[in-house]
Design goal:
By secondary structure, the protein is of the alpha/beta class. It is built from twelve helices and 21 strands. It is elongated and about 75 Å long.
């Protein structure tokens, strides 16, 4: 599927409570009367049945390493239950199941266990801190204790730190930075989560341009801003995702918005989730995971179009060690494809090999040039394919961002009408058309019934070389 890393969750008590630490896989499945799962495990992975849960985790990690995959070990919960609820006792330090001393012990044990194992590249201190007890004072104290504990046992792993409110709030770092000392500071990564759960669905469906702009600004102001600080710190979007069955149009549009941001900022990320189903979840046997890459039976990919949507974002877009000059790729996030030129036809194709575009944005409008030529992108007519021509000084080749999403690129035709780039699904070419959902087409209605994402294009700065 093109992924290079697995964010593997673990519970503190698996390492601190002998009732779990000494449990074998067979005993664990038997405890919950998971007959079908036990049969399948015995058939397909018989060597695991008599291993302890910890030994099995090591076996899984070794198998991933054998396939050249990296592992991030994420301390997901303390008491092993489904995560995450506001009042589940696992949310914040000193909660019913979240004892700071035991938590530090678990981090130390795990860090030591995988010392020298190159597959394990990072340890995330805690997933989705939350609940009525959360406060900044305890956050600073215990995050420093946890990071120190990991570093003392394993100097090689990155230390990943989450904020408050289900990993959506790092704003307090503006007033006081974390300071672990230079050795740990140099391998510190913050993490954030971004789902559409709390968003009003009608915002995504009827105000797609505006809401994508608003929610992207919110994400960057709450967490993403750390990459722009005077002493910038990497940030890892360690969870996002959608119902891959396509049941939610709001989530479909949210997902495209996230894809655009990830490409624009070249952020690291992990998609929730890989698993297509669970042996047991919240008391229900054989629970399907609609957000999973795999189908219910794990025998095929649930929705292959997701792979195309993520194609560009699975690549390194900005290589800080590259000696090659930067250029722009033109990305269409709704399809996951990139704009290219083939015999003067402007079309979309795979993002594995990028067409080089030149672009110097000016509020009064800018040319989009084809690097290595004297040609630039030019409007021909309403509903007609856009072309690369030598006419680079007229209004037909002067492009502006005309929506709040900053993804509508428009130029004026000979009649003075603004026309936006648009993906033509019939033949995968790029045409120009009336700009969707910008306000002038709404009349007295406060919403837009059309999906403007066919007209979303993102100019992505890259130095990817072939």
């Amino acid at each position: 599927m093109g992924f290079n890393c697995v964010r593997l969750t673990w519970a503190t008590e698996m390492f601190t409570n002998k009732a779990y630490a000494n449990l074998t896989v067979a005993q664990s499945l038997e405890r919950w009367n998971l007959v079908a799962a036990s049969f399948g495990m015995s058939l397909n992975n018989p060597d695991l049945m008599n291993k302890t849960l910890i030994e099995t985790q090591k076996t899984v990690i070794d198998a991933l390493g054998h396939e050249n995959l990296m592992v991030i070990l994420d301390n997901h919960v303390s008491f092993p239950i489904w995560c995450c609820d506001w009042n589940d006792g696992n949310g914040f330090f000193k909660d019913l199941h979240f004892h700071p001393v035991e938590w530090v012990q678990g981090l130390s044990t795990v860090a030591k266990l995988y010392k020298g194992n190159p597959t394990v590249v990072a340890i995330s201190l805690r997933n989705e801190l939350r609940g009525p007890r959360q406060n900044e004072f305890d956050w600073y104290q215990f995050m420093e204790e946890g990071a120190t504990a990991v570093h003392l046992e394993n100097v090689d792993v990155l230390v990943i730190v989450s904020g408050l409110s289900f990993e959506t709030d790092l704003t307090f770092l503006r007033q006081r930075k974390l300071n672990f000392g230079v050795n740990v500071n140099n391998k510190l990564v913050y993490e954030a989560h971004w789902y559409a759960f709390a968003d009003p669905p009608e915002k995504w469906i009827f105000s797609t341009n505006e809401f994508c702009a608003e929610i992207t600004e919110w994400f960057m102001s709450q967490t993403g801003y750390v990459i722009y600080e005077r002493s910038p710190t990497p940030i890892f979007l360690s969870e996002f995702g959608k119902d891959q069955n396509g049941a939610s149009e709001a989530e479909n549009r949210y997902f495209i918005c996230v894809m655009a941001l990830l490409a624009d900022k070249d952020l690291e990320w992990a998609l929730w989730a890989m698993q297509g189903s669970y042996y047991l979840r919240e008391g229900q046997v054989e629970w399907e995971e609609p957000y999973g890459m795999y189908s219910f039976a794990w025998d095929k990919i649930r929705n292959s179009s997701i792979l195309q949507l993520m194609e560009l974002n699975q690549q390194m877009i900005q290589d800080p060690t590259s000696e090659y000059a930067s250029y722009y790729a033109m990305y269409h996030p709704q399809t996951g494809r990139c704009v290219s030129v083939n015999k003067n036809n402007v079309t979309t194709s795979s993002c594995h090999r990028l067409q080089r575009w030149g672009f110097e944005y000016d509020e009064n409008g800018s040319r989009i040039t084809l690097v290595g030529t004297s040609g630039c992108l030019t409007v021909v007519a309403d509903k007609a394919p856009v072309k690369v021509t030598g006419d680079c000084s007229s209004q037909k080749s002067t492009w502006k961002f005309v929506s709040k999403s900053k993804m509508h690129l428009a130029a004026r035709d000979e009649k003075g009408m603004d026309l936006c780039l648009e993906w033509d699904s019939l033949n995968s070419t790029i045409v120009t058309n009336k700009c969707l959902c910008l306000g002038d087409d709404l009349g007295d209605l406060p919403w837009c019934s059309q999906n403007p994402q066919t007209q979303w294009f993102k100019l992505i700065l890259t130095n990817k070389h072939y």
